[in-house]
Amino acid sequence: MAHTVKGDWVWYELMTKDVAAAVAFYGEVAGWKTEAFGADYLMWVGARGPLGGVMLLPEEAAKMGAPPHWMGNLQVDDVDRAAARVKELGGKVYKEPFDVPTIGRVAIVADPQGASLAIFKPEQPMNAQADAQAGEVCWRELLTSDAAAAFAFYSDIVGWKSLEEMDMGPMGTYRIYGVGDRRLGGMMTTPKDQGMPPAWLFYVDVADLDAAISRATAMGAKVLNGPMEVPGGARVAQLMDPQGAAFALHQRPKS
To answer: For 148, what's the count of Cα atoms within 13 Å in the CB-facing half-sphere?
Structure first.
């Protein structure tokens, strides 16, 4: 099996105020199980193994005004060098590079527009999963104040390529990015009147979008956008979980 490389998203973490409630919610909506790692960390486990984790929103983040949120881990070749480059390009380093024993080296950063993420170098090679199955993250979308500037930043940090640009009319250009010719997600400039801070949004593949939305809203989630069809025939919806973390759902086109 191929391994993940620089520029791949390799792990997805939920920072939340109530871990038990989050576990119940995403277990019902996405079908995830959990597995303990150490004393105070739970991993999300999909059909093909661990894909992320859930933990209490750190006190320091809460004090800075951070709400519950999802954060993706982006693989780099050298965390220290990448963190220094983030600063040079106008981004922020919220947490300087540190080691997670047996796992790898990581830093918490924000791009120049303010979207937060982790940059990560695994200690051991991680298996790449070419196509997402139900219950796995299949698309990673950046909603930001300046998509062209954001793309230039990530292209510098991890070498992403622009694979396609789609004219969304009044919504502007939707840029699909990837590693080599592999499509990882998209990015777009959000309208100023929406008042959304720049953020990454992660799409979880589900077998039945409408059923998943029903399960989510029954447990207290809010639908922010959709459900709607997107180019290619897939259907998506963007939601906020009961504790305020934004996420999205994706149903593949019917064959």
So the answer is: 2
